[in-house]
């Protein structure tokens, strides 16, 4: 079931790399912001597997949730539209007076939107389950998808993405990725077979990432008939600032450098903080640019830049 445009490009970021001491070809970007579905992003790979499972089970409604500017919600709503399924999404926010950023696209794709006010990660997961139960009572056949598509089946997509990446560029020492719900990180780790090959940068979404990522990675490996990943999970918890969705000065530096040296747009919620984590790892000696070949996984998120909150923030500091 093709929802993503694959393979996505992988190319050097030599101007940005030179800024931090990488030789030509030493710092690359895997462009999963170009997967195509609803503006692109990493969730397209996961949704191919999840939606195929939903259809195989005879379900008629996708149910998921996230924050107000959730990329996963946007893309799930779009996948439902593309496949002729209904969709219910739970957004952990009050309903805004004016739709901006991802919310504009959410409304465009036409899912049922349930605004539930501020909810933390696990209460939001519970509310997704509750909405699926409600839909079942109404005679629907819902398919509940966890936040970020972070299930074994969703994460499996990124184990397969590692195979794609290695066909494109050969040897890779490290992939750096934003860690929201942890599924992408887990899949990458299962694909490499070693936690040492993936550095996740916590963006403040999920409180138990350290336990969730290795658990999902082992489950994905088992499903693929591969050995459980070796080593210890690598997560940088120092980049999310005041919390999920809160912009940071380091994230702003990363956005500016990547835009002005490479013409690539990051976002303040996920990829800006992930790039800030990569930069910090170089500055602190945890990445050696003279020895390590590093791939930055661009997971998308551009629509958030057009929310009133972040567009105002960007203009106020330029």
Topology:
Elements (H helix, E strand, L loop, with lengths): L9 E3 L1 H6 L7 E5 L11 H14 L4 E6 L4 H13 L2 E6 L10 H8 L2 E4 L5 H17 L4 E3 L7 H18 L4 E6 L3 H10 L5 E5 L6 H16 L10 E2 L12 H14 L8 H13 L10 E5 L9 H10 L1
Helix pairs in contact: 2-3, 2-6, 3-4, 6-7, 6-8, 7-8, 9-10
Explain what you see:
- The protein is an alpha/beta fold and 318 residues long.
- It folds into 2 domains: 10-41 and 151-317, Rossmann fold; 43-149, 3-Layer(aba) Sandwich (Rossmann fold), CATH 3.40.50.
- 44% of the residues lie in helices and 14% in strands.
- The protein contains 11 helices and 10 strands.
- It has helices at residues 14-19, 43-56, 71-83, 102-109, 121-137, 152-169, 183-192, 209-224, 249-262, 271-283, 308-317, and strands spanning 10-12, 27-31, 61-66, 86-91, 112-115, 142-144, 174-179, 198-202, 235-236, 294-298.
- Strands 1-2-10-7-8-9 form a 6-stranded mixed sheet.
- Helix 7 links the parallel strand 7 and strand 8 (198-202).
- The protein is globular, with a radius of gyration of 19 Å.
- The mean pLDDT is 96.
Give the number of helices: 11
CATH architecture of the largest domain: 3-Layer(aba) Sandwich
Beta-strand residue fraction: 5-15%
Radius of gyration: 19 Å
- Low-pLDDT segments: none
Strand order, biggest sheet?
A: 1-2-10-7-8-9
Taking the sheet with the most strands, its summary is: 6 strands, mixed
Structural class per helix/strand content? alpha/beta
As a percent range, the share of helical residues equals: 40-55%
Output the helix-strand order: EHEHEHEHEHEHEHEHEHHEH
Shape: globular
Overall tally of domains: 2
CATH fold name of the largest domain: Rossmann fold
